């Protein structure tokens, strides 16, 4: 469950980071408008905006979808690395929008993948040191099962032991006393 959430979070994080980088080269927007309500997402210069418009008198042109791309980048209103919220109301329509710097979206999305990476590294380090990968208890006296938390002490899969970083680490240890 944690792995799945971390993987999904990683995919979203990378996809958003790619959009973030693109936003410095091209401005892109896409919208949907059914005559009464319109929604738009717009990206440019490291920020992304989400806005809605609600009309009191509907247009009769039917539902429209649109996508616009423009290069070089035109300034996104408020796209200066700050969060902006805009509201505007007139006799015929109501507009509301928020502008977010991409960093504020990417940073929270990176929390799970980074935590997953750190937990995995800690577990591998503990296993390599002859300790329980779950709680870190010394397993030299009880190699089969951790007496502290009950976790079975499974040997690391072969592919894990062949990881280059692990080979490099053991080579370092073997080489260092002779230096
Ligand atoms: Zn344990």
Can you characterise this structure?
By secondary structure, the protein is α+β, with helices and mostly antiparallel strands. It has 3 domains: 44 residues; 78 residues, no CATH class; 50 residues, no CATH class. The chain is 35% helix and 26% strand. The chain has a 6-stranded antiparallel β-sheet with strand order 4-1-2-3-6-5. A hairpin with a 3-residue loop joins strand 5 and strand 6. Zinc ion binds next to loops.
Q: How much strand?
A: 25-35%
- Series of H and E elements: HEEEEEEHHH
Based on secondary structure, the structural category is alpha+beta
Helix content: 25-40%
Largest sheet: 6 strands, antiparallel
- Specify the overall morphology: elongated
- Count helical runs: 4
Distance between the termini: 46 Å
**Poorly predicted spans:** 159-163, 165-176
Ligands (ions, cofactors included) = zinc ion
Count of discrete structural domains = 3
Mean pLDDT: 83
DSSP strand tally: 6
Radius of gyration: 26 Å
Strand line-up of the largest beta sheet: 4-1-2-3-6-5
């Amino acid at each position: 469950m944690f792995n799945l959430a971390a993987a999904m979070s990683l995919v979203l994080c990378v996809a958003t980071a790619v959009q973030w980088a693109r936003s410095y080269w091209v401005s892109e927007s896409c919208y949907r408008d059914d005559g009464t309500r319109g929604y738009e997402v717009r990206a440019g210069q490291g920020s992304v905006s989400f806005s809605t418009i609600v009309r009191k008198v509907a247009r009769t042109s039917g539902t429209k979808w649109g996508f616009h791309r423009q290069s070089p980048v035109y300034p996104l209103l408020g796209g200066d690395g700050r969060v902006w919220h805009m509201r505007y109301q007139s006799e015929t329509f109501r507009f509301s929008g928020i502008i977010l710097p991409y960093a504020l979206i990417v940073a929270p999305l990176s929390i799970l993948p980074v935590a997953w990476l750190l937990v995995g590294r800690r577990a591998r380090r503990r296993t390599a040191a002859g300790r329980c990968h779950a709680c870190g208890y010394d397993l030299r006296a009880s190699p089969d099962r951790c007496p502290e938390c009950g976790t079975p002490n499974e040997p690391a899969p072969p592919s894990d032991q062949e990881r280059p970083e692990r080979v490099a680490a053991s080579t370092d240890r073997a080489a260092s006393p002779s230096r």
